[in-house]
Design a protein that fits this description.
9 helices; mainly alpha
Length: 216
Protein backbone atom coordinates (compact mmCIF):
# COMPACT_ATOMS: atom_id res chain seq x y z
CA UNK A 1 0.00 0.00 0.00
CA UNK A 2 1.06 3.59 -0.56
CA UNK A 3 2.29 5.97 2.11
CA UNK A 4 -0.99 7.97 2.47
CA UNK A 5 -2.91 4.76 3.18
CA UNK A 6 -0.31 3.64 5.73
CA UNK A 7 -0.41 7.08 7.34
CA UNK A 8 -4.22 7.05 7.64
CA UNK A 9 -4.16 3.66 9.35
CA UNK A 10 -1.30 4.76 11.60
CA UNK A 11 -3.22 7.91 12.59
CA UNK A 12 -6.31 5.86 13.46
CA UNK A 13 -4.29 3.37 15.51
CA UNK A 14 -2.44 6.19 17.29
CA UNK A 15 -5.71 7.85 18.31
CA UNK A 16 -7.17 4.52 19.46
CA UNK A 17 -4.07 3.65 21.49
CA UNK A 18 -3.88 7.09 23.13
CA UNK A 19 -7.57 7.18 24.06
CA UNK A 20 -7.50 3.61 25.35
CA UNK A 21 -4.41 4.28 27.45
CA UNK A 22 -5.66 7.56 28.93
CA UNK A 23 -9.31 6.62 29.50
CA UNK A 24 -9.27 2.88 30.22
CA UNK A 25 -5.78 1.45 30.75
CA UNK A 26 -4.33 4.23 32.91
CA UNK A 27 -4.86 2.48 36.31
CA UNK A 28 -2.70 -0.43 35.14
CA UNK A 29 0.14 1.88 34.13
CA UNK A 30 0.55 3.70 37.46
CA UNK A 31 4.02 2.49 38.33
CA UNK A 32 4.76 5.21 40.88
CA UNK A 33 3.15 5.07 44.32
CA UNK A 34 1.07 2.33 45.95
CA UNK A 35 0.94 -0.75 43.72
CA UNK A 36 -2.16 -2.47 45.16
CA UNK A 37 -4.74 -0.54 43.07
CA UNK A 38 -2.71 -1.26 39.94
CA UNK A 39 -2.45 -4.98 40.71
CA UNK A 40 -6.16 -5.19 41.46
CA UNK A 41 -7.10 -3.45 38.20
CA UNK A 42 -4.94 -5.77 36.08
CA UNK A 43 -6.32 -8.87 37.83
CA UNK A 44 -9.90 -7.67 37.37
CA UNK A 45 -9.42 -6.54 33.76
CA UNK A 46 -6.96 -8.93 32.06
CA UNK A 47 -8.70 -8.59 28.67
CA UNK A 48 -8.53 -4.79 28.76
CA UNK A 49 -4.87 -4.98 29.78
CA UNK A 50 -4.08 -7.32 26.87
CA UNK A 51 -6.14 -5.27 24.40
CA UNK A 52 -4.28 -2.10 25.34
CA UNK A 53 -0.91 -3.77 24.78
CA UNK A 54 -2.07 -5.24 21.47
CA UNK A 55 -2.85 -1.67 20.43
CA UNK A 56 0.72 -0.75 21.37
CA UNK A 57 2.04 -3.49 19.09
CA UNK A 58 -0.26 -2.33 16.28
CA UNK A 59 1.14 1.17 16.77
CA UNK A 60 4.71 -0.15 16.50
CA UNK A 61 3.81 -2.00 13.28
CA UNK A 62 2.16 1.10 11.77
CA UNK A 63 5.20 3.21 12.72
CA UNK A 64 7.42 0.79 10.78
CA UNK A 65 4.96 0.69 7.87
CA UNK A 66 4.94 4.48 7.42
CA UNK A 67 8.72 4.82 7.70
CA UNK A 68 9.47 1.90 5.37
CA UNK A 69 7.08 3.29 2.75
CA UNK A 70 8.83 6.68 2.96
CA UNK A 71 12.25 5.04 2.77
CA UNK A 72 11.39 3.20 -0.41
CA UNK A 73 9.59 6.18 -1.94
CA UNK A 74 12.22 8.86 -1.38
CA UNK A 75 15.55 7.51 -0.12
CA UNK A 76 17.91 5.50 -2.36
CA UNK A 77 17.83 1.87 -1.22
CA UNK A 78 21.50 1.25 -2.14
CA UNK A 79 22.85 3.80 0.38
CA UNK A 80 24.65 2.38 3.39
CA UNK A 81 22.74 4.82 5.60
CA UNK A 82 19.39 3.58 4.26
CA UNK A 83 20.34 -0.02 5.02
CA UNK A 84 21.45 1.03 8.52
CA UNK A 85 18.15 2.82 9.04
CA UNK A 86 16.21 -0.30 8.04
CA UNK A 87 18.26 -2.45 10.41
CA UNK A 88 17.89 -0.03 13.33
CA UNK A 89 14.16 0.15 12.70
CA UNK A 90 13.85 -3.63 13.00
CA UNK A 91 15.98 -3.70 16.18
CA UNK A 92 13.97 -0.91 17.79
CA UNK A 93 10.65 -2.53 16.91
CA UNK A 94 11.84 -5.94 18.18
CA UNK A 95 12.92 -4.49 21.54
CA UNK A 96 9.69 -2.52 21.97
CA UNK A 97 7.55 -5.54 21.08
CA UNK A 98 9.56 -7.71 23.50
CA UNK A 99 8.89 -5.23 26.31
CA UNK A 100 5.19 -5.11 25.46
CA UNK A 101 4.92 -8.91 25.37
CA UNK A 102 6.75 -9.14 28.72
CA UNK A 103 4.08 -6.99 30.33
CA UNK A 104 1.28 -8.77 28.51
CA UNK A 105 2.33 -12.34 29.32
CA UNK A 106 4.30 -12.16 32.56
CA UNK A 107 2.54 -9.49 34.60
CA UNK A 108 -0.94 -11.10 34.92
CA UNK A 109 0.62 -14.48 35.71
CA UNK A 110 2.69 -13.28 38.70
CA UNK A 111 0.09 -11.06 40.37
CA UNK A 112 -1.81 -13.94 42.09
CA UNK A 113 1.45 -15.33 43.55
CA UNK A 114 2.51 -14.76 47.15
CA UNK A 115 5.92 -13.55 45.96
CA UNK A 116 4.38 -10.83 43.80
CA UNK A 117 6.11 -8.04 45.74
CA UNK A 118 9.48 -9.51 44.79
CA UNK A 119 8.67 -10.43 41.19
CA UNK A 120 6.71 -7.32 40.21
CA UNK A 121 9.71 -4.94 40.21
CA UNK A 122 11.69 -7.45 38.15
CA UNK A 123 8.99 -7.78 35.49
CA UNK A 124 8.38 -4.03 35.38
CA UNK A 125 12.12 -3.36 35.19
CA UNK A 126 12.58 -5.81 32.32
CA UNK A 127 9.58 -4.49 30.39
CA UNK A 128 10.56 -0.85 30.89
CA UNK A 129 14.17 -1.60 29.97
CA UNK A 130 13.15 -3.22 26.70
CA UNK A 131 10.58 -0.53 25.92
CA UNK A 132 13.09 2.20 26.73
CA UNK A 133 15.78 0.68 24.53
CA UNK A 134 13.28 0.21 21.69
CA UNK A 135 12.09 3.81 21.98
CA UNK A 136 15.70 5.06 22.11
CA UNK A 137 16.70 3.25 18.90
CA UNK A 138 13.35 3.99 17.26
CA UNK A 139 13.71 7.67 18.11
CA UNK A 140 17.17 7.81 16.58
CA UNK A 141 16.07 6.20 13.33
CA UNK A 142 12.86 8.28 13.12
CA UNK A 143 14.84 11.50 13.58
CA UNK A 144 17.45 10.33 11.07
CA UNK A 145 14.85 9.49 8.44
CA UNK A 146 13.05 12.78 9.05
CA UNK A 147 16.27 14.75 8.51
CA UNK A 148 16.99 12.76 5.33
CA UNK A 149 13.47 13.50 4.06
CA UNK A 150 14.11 17.21 4.67
CA UNK A 151 17.25 17.02 2.52
CA UNK A 152 16.33 14.53 -0.19
CA UNK A 153 12.55 14.50 -0.64
CA UNK A 154 10.23 17.09 -2.20
CA UNK A 155 8.08 17.09 0.95
CA UNK A 156 8.14 20.49 2.66
CA UNK A 157 10.77 20.62 5.40
CA UNK A 158 8.26 22.27 7.76
CA UNK A 159 6.11 19.14 7.72
CA UNK A 160 9.09 16.78 7.93
CA UNK A 161 9.92 18.57 11.18
CA UNK A 162 6.93 16.78 12.75
CA UNK A 163 8.65 13.45 12.10
CA UNK A 164 11.94 14.78 13.48
CA UNK A 165 10.24 16.11 16.62
CA UNK A 166 8.46 12.79 17.24
CA UNK A 167 11.74 10.92 16.97
CA UNK A 168 13.68 13.39 19.12
CA UNK A 169 11.13 13.06 21.92
CA UNK A 170 11.54 9.26 21.93
CA UNK A 171 15.33 9.32 22.37
CA UNK A 172 15.47 10.19 26.12
CA UNK A 173 12.90 7.51 27.03
CA UNK A 174 15.33 5.18 28.92
CA UNK A 175 16.21 8.07 31.24
CA UNK A 176 12.65 9.33 31.81
CA UNK A 177 10.59 6.18 32.37
CA UNK A 178 8.38 5.40 34.24
CA UNK A 179 7.15 8.96 33.60
CA UNK A 180 5.53 8.81 30.13
CA UNK A 181 4.54 12.40 29.34
CA UNK A 182 7.23 12.87 26.71
CA UNK A 183 5.85 9.77 24.94
CA UNK A 184 2.43 11.41 24.75
CA UNK A 185 4.03 14.46 23.14
CA UNK A 186 5.89 12.20 20.68
CA UNK A 187 2.64 10.43 19.82
CA UNK A 188 0.94 13.77 19.13
CA UNK A 189 3.75 14.90 16.80
CA UNK A 190 3.60 11.52 15.06
CA UNK A 191 -0.18 11.87 14.74
CA UNK A 192 0.27 15.29 13.12
CA UNK A 193 2.82 13.82 10.68
CA UNK A 194 0.47 10.96 9.77
CA UNK A 195 -2.47 13.33 9.34
CA UNK A 196 -0.40 15.48 6.98
CA UNK A 197 0.60 12.43 4.91
CA UNK A 198 -2.85 10.83 5.05
CA UNK A 199 -4.74 13.90 3.84
CA UNK A 200 -2.95 13.70 0.50
CA UNK A 201 -4.29 11.50 -2.26
CA UNK A 202 -0.72 11.12 -3.47
CA UNK A 203 2.64 12.42 -2.33
CA UNK A 204 5.03 14.40 -4.55
CA UNK A 205 7.06 12.32 -6.98
CA UNK A 206 10.60 11.54 -5.93
CA UNK A 207 11.71 12.42 -9.48
CA UNK A 208 9.56 15.38 -10.60
CA UNK A 209 11.77 15.92 -13.64
CA UNK A 210 10.65 12.53 -15.00
CA UNK A 211 6.99 13.54 -14.84
CA UNK A 212 7.85 16.72 -16.72
CA UNK A 213 9.55 14.69 -19.45
CA UNK A 214 6.44 12.49 -19.86
CA UNK A 215 4.26 15.55 -20.44
CA UNK A 216 6.45 16.83 -23.27
Amino acid sequence: MKTPTAARISAAVTVAALLFMLLIMRPGLRLVGVSFPRQAWILENPLLWSLGLWLWMALIFCWMWVLVSLLWAYLPAHRISTMLQSGLMLIGATLAIAGTVTWMAALPSILPLQSVNELLPLVDGLALGLLGAGAFIGGIVTTWIGVDLMRLSPIAATWCALCVAAGALLIPTPFLLPFPWHLLAAALFWLGWCIFLGLRRRLPSAYPEMSQIKTL
